[in-house]
Amino acid sequence: MVLLDTHIWLWWLLGDGNLTDTERFALDELATKRHISISWVTIWETEMLERKKRIRLEPDFKTWIEEATHPSVSAILPVDTEVVIAQRRLPENFHADPADRLITATALLTGFKIATYDRRIIDSAIVSIWKP
């Protein structure tokens, strides 16, 4: 199972961003095997981006998010007490962004590799980074 950071999930599903063709193909393959997961925080971040008009979701947010979170696309991992506690294992110098902290803590707790381009997460070396 691979946990997608919010930007990777959006780039993959919206067909934009910095993903290479190799990464897109690999994510498509993982999806066919139901090996893609996202944190519930990704849904929250997506809603905020859409509301601020930083992304456009067609035909509307509700329809798009229902399709994008269908089990054939990705598994949604909930936040719970264990995820919040797992944040305490992040290094002191780990950045303060709440979403990135919760997503990284989820990867830490589950042992899933995380797909991200976020240098702060990569450079922390606290979780395994997915590469196709």
Q: What would you note in describing this structure?
A:
The chain has helices at residues 6-14, 21-32, 40-51, 61-68, 81-86, 98-110, 119-124; strands at residues 2-4, 36-39, 75-77, 113-115. By secondary structure, it is α/β, with parallel strands linked by helices. The chain has a four-stranded parallel sheet with strand order 3-2-1-4. The two termini are 13 Å apart. The mean pLDDT is 95.
Helix content: 40-55%
Instruction: Identify the strand order in the major beta sheet.
Output: 3-2-1-4
Please state the average pLDDT score: 95
Total count of domains: 1
User: Multimeric state of these chains?
Assistant: single chain
What is the distance, rounded to the nearest whole angstrom, between the alpha carbons of the first and last residues? 13 Å
**Superfamily (CATH H level) name:** 5'-nuclease
E-strand count: 4
Uncertain spans, ≥5 residues at pLDDT below 50?
Answer: none
Number of helices: 7
What is the overall silhouette? Answer: globular
List the helices and strands and how they pair.
Layout: E1 2-4, H1 6-14, H2 21-32, E2 36-39, H3 40-51, H4 61-68, E3 75-77, H5 81-86, H6 98-110, E4 113-115, H7 119-124
Parallel strand pairs: 1-2, 1-4, 2-3
